[in-house]
Amino acid sequence: MPSVVSCFDSVKDAEQFIEDGAPGDIEQLLPAGTSSRAAAAAATVTVGKIWTGTSRSGSVLIHWGSGTGCNGVTFGFPSLGAGWNNNVRSAEGFNNCWSSQYDGTNYTGAVLTCAPYCSSLGALAAKTSSIVYRPVGTFG
Question: Which end of the chain is more exposed for a tag (fewer CB within 10 A), N or C?
Answer without folding.
Answer: N
